[in-house]
Amino acid sequence: IFLFDQKSWDQEVDDENGNYDYLMGADLDFGNEETVQEVTSWLYWYINLTKINGLRLDAVKHIPASFYKNLLPKIYHDFNKELFTVGEYWHGDVYHLEKYLKEVNFEMSLFDVPLHYHFYDASHNENYDFSHIFNQTLVSMYPSNAVTFVDNHDTEPSQSLASFIPDWFKGHAYCLTLLRKAGYPCVFYGDLEGIDYENISSKKEMLQQLLSLRKQYNEGNQEDYFNHPHLIGWTRHTETKAMVIIMTNSTGGIKSMYVGKEDRHCYYVNVFNGYQRVLINEDGYGDFYCEDKNFAVYVKE
Questions:
Q1: Which one of the listed residues 12, 88, 219, 224 is annotated catalytic?
Q2: Higher pLDDT, 31 or 147
Q3: What is d(CA 111, CA 113) in angstroms, rounded to the nearest whole number?
Q4: How far apart are alpha carbons 150 and 165 in whole angstroms?
């Protein structure tokens, strides 16, 4: 990598490779005020033209943090709307993401890359401690600044960051993003529609079901039952409805979870297997079942 004469790499970028200002041999010099003004004016022009309500900022770890720290508040003010903004800072260490969020004064959210790698590890190692799936993830540390995702265009097979989540674990991972209280989940179009050239099948039916469950039941209190290394569960419930999620990356089993005394003597049914029904006892608890290496979502029958 060579610099032009009298030039230096931008600071406030990722420390990978010493200083990761450059990317793919196409570096923009943010030390040049004319460059800063051109990028800024282009963004204003684009927002005015398209009337978009949000921004996805690519490769932010290669751009000085101060650029977005100064620009984003001005954009929010000038356009007088929220403009939800997410940056792609690709790093598996959550503390690099935390450092960047502080550098940009929390003006944006970031994709939760550490959580993606936890999904990958949990789906490739049967000894992985499932109860720690959210440890040292962005969504556990800064839930209002975390965009959770399962896969994207960079993680699919043959891509530079290939770390694709296998089919058997896709449902687990989407439950852990779509059916939780924290984070802003993002569904990968390649999972929804399939990727023909990679022989990746569509997960549309499952995803539409999970999205419907999110819309109907993902509110109220959340109670976690992460007390086993391979069998975890949680509930979401209000005074009028509840949803129960249970999953395992190993051997199946049963977990007793609370849905509310108002549902005693009622049956809960697994949305993905109608033969699995659970009777709620006097105290509002049910013994919910999950098959080997599978997940289940129960709602009131």
A1: 88
A2: 147
A3: 6
A4: 7
Q: CA 298 → CA 89, 104, 121, 284, distances in Å?
A: 35, 41, 26, 14
Count of C-beta atoms within a 10 Å radius of residue 67: 19
Q: Is 88 annotated as catalytic?
A: yes
Q: What is the CA radius of gyration of the chain?
A: 22
Q: Which residue blocks in 125-166 are alpha helix, DSSP H?
A: 138-141
Mean pLDDT, the chain, whole residue set: 94
**Residue-level pLDDT at 4:** 82
Q: Which range is least confidently modeled, 18-32, 71-85, 284-298?
A: 18-32
Helix (H, G, I), strand (E, B) or coil at 278: strand
**pLDDT over 80 (residue 50):** yes
What pLDDT does 1 receive? 54
Count Cβ atoms below 10 Å from residue 63 Cβ, excluding itself: 23
> Which domains, ranges and CATH numbers included, belong to the chain?
33-217 (3.20.20.80), 221-300 (2.60.40.1180)
Beta bridge partners of 234: 224, 245
CA 11 to chain centre: 28
Catalytic residue among 38, 58, 126, 167: 58
Q: Which residues neighbour 29 within 8 Å (Cβ) at sequence distance 6 or greater?
A: 7, 10, 35
pLDDT in tens, 86-144: 999 999 999 999 999 999 999 999 999 999 999 999 999 989 999 999 999 999 999 99
